[in-house]
Amino acid sequence: MSTQTPTQDKTKLRAAPRMSFGRWITQLGWRHAITIAAVMFALFPITYIIGVALNPVGSLSSACPPSKTGISALSCLVIPQTVSFENFSAIFNDPRLPYGTWFVNSLTVALVAAIFSTLMSASAAFAFSRLRFKGRRPGLLSLVLLQMFPQILAITAIFILMTKISEVFPQFGSGTVTGLILIYLGGSLGVNTYLIKGFFDTVPIEIDESAKIDGASHVRIFFGLVLRLSAPVMVVVFFVTFTFVFNELAIAQTLLPNTTDTTLAVGMQTYVSGNLQEWGKFAAGALLAAIPMITVFAFTQRYLVTGLTSGAVKG
Amino acid sequence: MSTTNPPDVGEQSTGKSPLGRMPSGSVNAWIGKLVLLGIIDVLGLWAVLKAYGASWWLAVGFLTIVLVIANITYFRKGGLPLKYMLPGLVFLVAFQLYPAGYTFYASFTNLGTGHLISQEEARASILVQNEKPVADAPSFDVRPIVKGNEVSMLITDPETGTALIGTSEGTTPAPDAEFTGATATAVPGYDTLNLGQLTGDPQLDQQWRDLAVPWDVEQGYNLRQSSPTRGELRQSDFAYDPETDTFRDTATGAVFFANGSVGLYTTDTFDPDSTNRQNEGQFLTPGWPVGVGLDNYTTVLTDPGVRSNFMPILIWSFVFAIGTVLMQFGFGLLLALVMQDKRMKGQRFYRLALVLPYALPIFMTALVWKGMLNRDFGIINQILGANIDWLGDGTLAKFSVLLVNLWIGYAYMLLVVTGALTAIPQDLKEAAFVDGASAFRAFRTIVLPLLMVSVSPLLIASFSFNFNNFTLIQLLTNGGPFAGSPIQGGQTDLLITYTYRLAFGTNEQLLGFASAISMIIFIIVAGVSAYSFRLTKRLEEIKQ
Amino acid sequence: MANVAFEHVEKVYPNGFHAVQDLNLEIEDGEFLVLVGPSGCGKSTALRMIAGLEDVSDGKLIIGDRVVNDLSPQDRDIAMVFQSYALYPHLSVADNIAYGLKIRKMSKDEIAQRIQRAADMLELGPFLDRKPAMLSGGQRQRVAMGRAIVRDPAVFLMDEPLSNLDAKLRVQMRAEISSVVHDLGTTTVYVTHDQVEAMTMGDRMAVMKAGLLQQAGPPQEVYDHPNNIFVAQFVGSPPMNMVKGRLSQSGDGLSVHVGDKDLVIPASVLDERAGLRKYIGRDVAVGVRSEDMEDASLTPDASQDRRLNGTVTLVEALGSEIVVHFSLKGDAVVTEDTKLVAQETGDEALDTGPAGEVRWVASFSPRSRVRREDRVEITVDMERVHWFDPDSGEAIRG
Questions:
Q1: Phi and psi, residue C327, nearest 5°
Q2: Predicted pLDDT at A147
Q3: Which of B225, C75, C234, C383 has the highest count of CB atoms within 10 angstroms of its CB?
Q4: Four-way CATH pick for B300-543: 3.40.50.300, 1.10.3720.10, 3.40.50.1860, 1.10.260.40
Q5: Which residue in chain A has the smallest CA separation from C148?
Q6: What number is the ipTM of this complex?
Q7: B21 touching chain C per CB within 8 A
Q8: Which residues does chain C have within 8 Å of residue B18's beta carbon, measured at their own beta carbons?
Q9: Are strands B178-180 and C66-67 parallel, antiparallel or unpaired?
Q10: pTM above 0.90, yes or no
């Protein structure tokens, strides 16, 4: 989001005379006030969870007795008395709740689903955007309609289908990460294809034609030109799919209900549900779980704004 | 495009489009393609054979068609569109279209607990479930033996002491069996399985448990294992007559016939309008799924009991989805406008901090908030020194859910609005100022309408997403607080969480009914989207 | 180097639109042919068929000595310059130019040499490392040209390559393209809707309308001897003035009654256009180019029987000439063609105005003193008047 502060404005600022405090308040001060309030709102849960993760005591209330309230409670809850990475090591040493397995599963599922879904959607979008064929318009219309039917609505059918698949192909059915990936691949195609097609349409067809005259094959035109020129939307689709899959709960907990081999979204809640109230472990796990998403976000945020708006408006 | 091209060229053109004649690449690419298709063919054939072995005809048909089409598509010269669409299409059909179609179908059936398996399977199940050990029957020494993948039973007849091989078809004598003491323990051509081998292979174990060897057909006796070395004679309470497709209770003589309207074997005194409890003894379980017409839909809309659960959930789903979109968009817009002044220092930090919630997994943030809002040890109550039941009181829970979702989603709107705002030409705003408009007026009459044009599709998408925001509700409140039983729905239940609970959440799975609600959700979301897209079109016309 | 020939070529789009009908046209080896016509006339479709971007529905398309109907674009040995230039935005100028050569696996040295040669020719040297987005419109145009030139193809195809440039650049690039292409001596097919480009750039021009070839020939010949009203009005600016006139016998010769005047047709014209005699007692369409008229006050010697009367509605002094718009008594010639041209050029002079009056445009010598709303007498160069059948629009000749 740093794109919003072009450098030439800084020089302008330096040249401008210092404004009086009163003017600063009316022109900029209130803006800072609102923004700072919003930042506190945004960061409060995050700093809190960091504090919990680093606090060695399993239960929070023991460190900060309920008698403490207000600021003192805030400081005692957010700032750990002693910093320890006990929680972090604990989550990797619990065979009943194998955090490491969840993490690897989530990352695998999200990466594989996002990569393949983006590629498959892009190639379908290429056909819709660039090629003429019978059934193109009805095909597009069905895609739009399918977008309105998220897989979660068909969860019953998916459950029955996957149960059947695991009887015949135990490698791909319920209870397997592979099966979960297959489901996600099917589910994200409709939305993604339409989004990408909208963006492809903005790449002039003359570029393809010119390349064709230059002797480029359709594979080369697709990968070398159209995909390349649509990088923003590809990145956005990758990010959106990755995020969706990484966060997905309903299908994951239906297909991978067993906490010994499931995804983060399903597994994490077991730390803090029922009698188990392991907030320290949960916090540690949650912080680590945030890393993949923040990483992907950091790499893609440059494209997010343009990709999100342009793709959607075209669609 | 050239101006001479008529606007709608080639909708119905086939593969002979000019792009269809692109060159097909080099030799290396050709070999690569061959190898890839070879792998797919081998895998596909393996899958077809496995599906065939399991008599799963739908899969056999689907996989065969896919294989044939794939080979034709990638080996012939033309047909470029399909070359690009086939991979996606296969997944779309298998895991999106088929489930969607099945949901539609299931919404017209009574699929669910007691109606999950086919009629044939139900028949077998009725017999097995009502089996009881035959009184005073001798105990049998048996051994699981296996040939190929078929598990059979090596039986030592307690009366004669001879060895028999038992299958589901019946028994055959095994004169060459080897005995250990008086017990037949092995037979040439078969492997005898021990306990470890059985537990190590779930499929063999299941076969062993399911194996019922007809022992005395007249009496309806079956010989079944009771442990890996012991067998017992069992007899069902019901006798099945394939000619009339009826069950007879061997004790009372009551006759149960296949009742196609409810998918159960019932007596003729069975009353389909009564509850199961009132019909106690009038039917056999399990049944099989049958079509019930529009029953599931009419139940949702007219049954007073169901409707009183359904309507509040429907209304709250709308309130939640619309409220979320408005709050997230409003807050995002406010922040975007506040930070629009380029003289403001620290923008880089502000934006980074403000966008952070968007980059965190929802399962993390929802649960963090759940902890923070906890009445007994939550940080919010502790700071306030209060004892407020944020998630336990209906109204407060609704408020909390909206607040948490605001926190989760405003950053997305901030990103989008910032992008859309920068895309609005500066001279438009300047023109408004030149025309004498106040800042607010310029915003309301120029900036906001233009902004809405570019963001409204996203708002609609956000509405559909939040209407089905299963993850947040499940993690934060699980639909609660609940006034009655969870099956009646909770105060923060969305239609989707309610549906999920109907399907999986309780002991009784109401899959057909849940599917009907899924279809209703689909119709609502599609309707709202279609309507809003029409509004958006009108907005776009304003722009021009 | 190669010739290009259309033999009974048809193009029907799948939706039934008949874009090109029975096109027969041969473009000589090394010739610069301009395909011109209003939008939708099929000129771009014809070009795209040569390129292989559109299928040929029927007939034969020949490049060199090969029928190329079923050949893919890359095998046709052509290069094309697009209206939008179609530069690859992610590649530098040099890479844009080299793209086609790299695909053809040309050696690096050869590629570098060719880029250098093209860059010299088009003065692109300083920009080779830039991305297209950093170039001006004219520079992008040059890159597109360069991309075509380095390929050293048998045929250049250009699809309205100048229409995205401003007026001044267009004039400059017009000359530049002409000279580059003539230097290279490569067969070129150039599509435009701008008749000025058609007149100035090509060795020959081919005028198309609604999928049909109207006339092909050297520009001056087409200008001087249009086959029909459409060509007459489409070629030339301002469009040829038209009015209905009735032919009658006068003595040995013929005269035509226009408005309230009788103009005598010179004997030399009658020799050339014997067909005119068949129209005695009937209406003909009389066409006069603006430069074939003069202010009668400046030509006192001109006889009365070649003068028209009009009322001046607008005067545009251009220095070298004075463009005078005037209204003339007479019936407008209205055919599908005149409507099409009026639509294309957006020229009000072709609007029919009040009934019984037509609006004409004449270019007078700068010495003329006419003013707005003057009654003016106009001398017509009767030798250069064009004659058409008012219904079919065909030129009346032998």
A1: -105, 145
A2: 77
A3: C234
A4: 1.10.3720.10
A5: A214
A6: 0.86
A7: yes
A8: 52-55
A9: unpaired
A10: no
